[in-house]
Amino acid sequence: MSGATRKWADLKTRTLTAMALAAVAGFALWAGGAAFSLLVGLACAAMTWELARIAEVRGTLVRILFAVSAGLAFFVVAVLQQPRAVWAFLLVIAVFLVAARRLRSATVVCLGAVFLTGVVLVSLRDGGGMAWVGWVMSVVIASDIAAYLAGRAIGGPKFWPSISPKKTWSGTIAGWVAAMIVGMIFAPILGAGWVLIPVSAALALCGQLGDIAESAMKRAAGIKDSSNLLPGHGGVLDRFDALIGASIGLVYLGFFFGFPG
Question: Is the pTM of this model over 0.70?
Answer without folding.
Answer: yes
